[in-house]
Amino acid sequence: MLASGSAAFAAAAAKAGSILVALPLMAFDNRWVQALGALFDKVRRSRPSAAAPAAAKA
Question: Is the pLDDT of residue 16 over 90?
């Protein structure tokens, strides 16, 4: 990019490179967050709810 001497080309290449790097990282992040959410849901469901004893008393 420096050899071309074009600032516009360098800016366009930097933008395209950033997008090409960000897309796989975004896909990985979405999968990781979904997996983490599923794990926490499983843990939350396995614990007895704090609201159940309060509802039983009423």
Answer: yes
